[in-house]
Design brief:
2 copies of one chain form a homodimer.
Chain A lengths: L5 E7 L3 E8 L4 E8 L3 H4 L1 H15 L8 E8 L14 H11 L5 E5 H9 L5 E6 L3 E7 L2 E7 L2 H4 L5 H16 L7 H10 L1 H9 L12 H9 L10 H9 L3 H19 L10 E4 L1 H4 L3 H13 L5 E3 L3 H11 L7 H9 L13
């Protein structure tokens, strides 16, 4: 354990909490990963437990009293500079106390952090499509405007949830005789009712033929799970699209159109500021990402488009930006690229 | 207490359970009303408790051992003649035991019962729009085909839920600057954020002006409630439509088109069999009902269109149909029209 000064950055999402500790020159010292920690979605106690676990891992073998500044990015964190009004604010304060972290803790929007993960410019736009979808405009490295991000029930058009729901609707339409044949039907049945196909193969002239899968069976399975589980089916649209299925291609086309509309709502048509893409649907090589990029190239041909991947590193960078001297390009390079950025092995939009 | 023979009919919905006891000539002897009793939605224990309460009221002062046949209409009851595979089947069996009812109990589909409530024909179609929406084809007074009824997340197009969600989306679109002005915006804000308007009136030059309501505020309120609560906003679409609001008119038009599509999927274009309309959106004088009726008159000009209102009486009628002599027209008249049919004082699509 040394007494070198540290900063701590956290990227708190609905399904994973990531923490990163670094020295003032941007050298990574420790990292942590825990379950989701969004207090709005998961409740303050589970959120605080995830936060504590990720912080504990990141500071293992380090002196918590040496931490000079903490930045935490989380959904809805934008309007909460001190975290006082945060759902779970008290529980979070206890985490810092018990971890021995005594410096200021700043709560920021996860979308702003995703923007900073993609660029060191002060101004630009972020387009995010993961489980949900939204766009923000950034000015002076602060949130200036926002569009969509209205959640799965009323918005998030073009998100992983939206794609997964469209996949099920396409399969239901075919099964109900209301829509065209599509490769999605078999993929959705295989994913939602993994036994159904085996049952059918096992049917012999001696056994009763099981009745074919109906739209109703898909509904029953989907309704038995939390709605957001539909986001897990988003990769099926990409798979069917790769096989040139016209229904899947048209879903991808609509998703991309929705996302570009969401971005355009917060971006001047002639803006030259950078665009950052974030969220698993846009940071993985999906057909939605390819289509969005093609439209962006057409509409803003001269604009830099980058990926916002490492939210914890971006939170560290924002923490360093609060201290002196301000971080420079070399530091950013060291911080973001000394380790490979975190990506999931399997594309999972949740 | 006399020893005259009785039958018992139940209409078990998500928000109300109605029971009716009658003599074999169709004279009403007792009725009961309790909370929702759908075992799929509410769990077997709450469902059984509601059933027990409604049955207890209907049989108060009557001899339960005199009941010759029971018919229970409930969602998903179609494939469950004995109720054995019913979620809550065991709990339901205990209700009959404790009530002292020892005759056969038959579980039928709530939609079939709604059809029988509207006509004594053996064949025809039912179009229902309440909280949810579906259509069925009836042959030999049994369920022959079904369309939609796929629930709020994946279907129920043109239902109360669907109307309520469209109202909120229209308000959000105006607030986000993405959609036209509509009378729905003020109605939705008043309904979801009853304090917001008062706050604004209370703002004086001496107090800080409160920030205007944003789409986000509507999202937060909606997401804090169960999704089906959106059905409570359906009357707002009707109110705005009555005031000739073009956005509301277009929502009503789409709802009616969806419902007619749902009906057409289970009905031959040249069928002369009757059409029964059920569910609060279609049995109340709403603009959706008016529009649907207009389309039906155009498409099936010679066909009788009636309302399926009294599900408990229809269940009694089906129970009598299992006994001898079969019920005749005079009995039906007595059973359905000796008391006013049950209607809600305030239109509430839930």
């Amino acid at each position: 354990m040394t007494d070198e000064a540290l900063v701590l950055g956290l990227d708190v999402g609905g399904t994973a909490t990531r923490a990163l500790a670094a020295t003032l020159d941007g050298t990574r010292r420790g990292s942590g990963r825990a379950a989701g920690g969004n207090p709005t979605g998961l409740g303050p106690r589970r959120a605080a437990a995830a936060l504590a676990e990720a912080v504990g891992q990141a500071l293992a073998g380090l002196d918590p009293a040496a931490v000079r500044h903490v930045v935490v990015g989380l959904a809805g964190g934008a309007a909460l500079p001190g975290g006082e009004d945060l759902p779970g604010g008290e529980e979070f304060a206890r985490v810092w106390e018990q971890a021995g972290v005594r410096c200021p803790v700043e709560y920021g929007s996860d979308t702003l952090i995703a923007f900073v993960a993609g660029t060191d410019e002060l101004e630009g736009s972020l387009l995010l499509s993961g489980t949900g979808a939204c766009a923000i405009a950034v000015k002076d490295r602060a949130l200036a405007a926002r569009s969509d991000g209205h959640g799965w029930l009323l918005g998030d058009r073009g998100s992983g949830f939206w794609l997964g729901r469209q996949a099920v609707l396409a399969a239901m339409a075919e099964l109900d005789g209301e829509g065209p044949q599509t490769a999605l039907t078999a993929l959705v049945i295989e994913s939602l009712l993994p036994g159904a196909d085996a049952d059918r193969r096992a049917a012999t002239p001696l056994k009763a033929t099981p009745r074919p899968v109906a739209a109703r069976d898909l509904v029953t399975t989907v309704m038995a799970q939390p709605p957001l589980s539909l986001a897990r089916l988003a990769p099926l649209v990409c798979a069917a699209c790769a096989a040139a299925d016209p229904v899947a291609e048209s879903i991808v086309e609509s998703a991309a159109a929705h996302l570009v509309t969401t971005l355009s709502a917060v971006r001047e048509p002639r803006s030259m500021t950078p665009i950052v893409l974030a969220g698993s649907v846009l940071t993985h090589p999906t057909p939605v990402a390819a289509r969005v990029r093609a439209v962006l190239r057409e509409r803003w041909p001269e604009v830099a488009v980058s990926l916002g991947l490492d939210g914890a590193a971006a939170a560290v960078w924002l923490a360093l930006d609060r201290l002196l001297p301000p971080p420079d390009g070399a530091l950013r390079e060291r911080l973001f690229f000394s380790d490979p950025p975190p990506t999931e092995e399997v594309w999972d939009p949740t």
